[in-house]
Specification:
The chain has about 240 residues and is an alpha/beta fold. It is built from 14 helices and seven strands. It folds into two domains: about 130 residues, Rossmann fold; about 90 residues, DNA polymerase, domain 1. Helix content is about 50%, strand content about 15%. A seven-stranded mixed β-sheet has the order 6-5-4-3-1-2-7, with helices on both faces. β3 and β4 form a beta hairpin. It is globular and about 60 Å long.
Length: about 240
């Protein structure tokens, strides 16, 4: 039986969560993720925040940027808040502003919220997300691009799946519909929008990425973990003493 697996952002190493996940039988892989802290499946990702980090991210605007990025890259984004919620009233002067911001990001970006008390509870919550999402496979782009020698069809799938918001399922649909990767990238925004599962919003993102100058593209690429992590050479399995 394949053990459950999760991709974890490098910056989460010191949080204590990855070690506890490993203790729960979850295979942990580290990578430098531009979006989210934990990738559960191709559709599910989690941004973890302590109470103090959540509060500061509200006031400096990071929360809204991160909410936009994770909701653009994953169909089921989660915000996991770790710590004693009673601390909020001690650290926030205006509770209405705090909860207003939380309501705003959850409503605008479709974030699901999980509250945990500490790293152990966070690990349990993530393990249950893995179980309930039936994540038998890691997101293909998070594992890395196919090595040389892989068959041409697989290379074509990975190439097209790296487009913003596409993934392997839509990549296969696009290639089946138009034939070749070159024909895919030559589609207009309107043609992308007509492909089932792509739609006008995702079609617009793809077209902007393909048509924008390099420096503009960089911002788009960093907002999509699928594109960025497809360039990763490998993932480092977590080493336990």
């Amino acid at each position: 039986m394949i053990p459950p697996r999760v991709v974890v952002d490098e910056r989460e190493r010191q949080s204590g969560v990855p070690e506890k996940l490993s203790g729960l039988g979850v295979r942990v892989y580290f990578n430098r993720l531009p979006v989210a802290d934990y990738i559960i499946s191709p559709e599910v990702a989690v941004e973890r925040k302590s109470i103090s980090d959540l509060i500061s991210s509200i006031y400096d605007g990071r929360l809204f940027i991160q909410a936009s990025e994770i909701s653009s890259a994953y169909r089921k984004p989660y915000l996991l808040v770790e710590g004693d919620v009673k601390e909020v009233s001690n650290q926030v002067k205006n509770l209405r502003s705090y909860y207003g911001a939380i309501a705003s990001v959850t409503m605008a970006y479709g974030l699901r919220i999980i509250h945990t008390a500490d790293a152990q509870e966070t690990a349990v919550a993530l393990a249950e997300l893995l179980q309930n999402s039936k994540a038998g496979k890691l997101p293909p782009a998070a594992i890395g691009a196919p090595r040389k020698g892989k068959e041409l069809a697989q290379q074509q799938l990975y190439f097209v799946s790296a487009l913003p918001g596409v993934g392997l399922k839509l990549a296969k649909r696009l290639l089946t519909r138009v034939g070749t990767p070159r024909k895919v990238i030559n589609l207009t925004e309107a043609q992308f929008a007509m492909v089932p599962g792509v739609g006008s919003k995702r079609g617009g993102k793809i077209s902007r990425m393909l048509d924008s100058p390099m420096m503009d593209v960089l911002a788009i690429v960093l907002s999509s973990s699928a594109v960025f992590t497809a360039l990763a050479v490998s993932l480092e399995p977590m080493m336990m003493l």
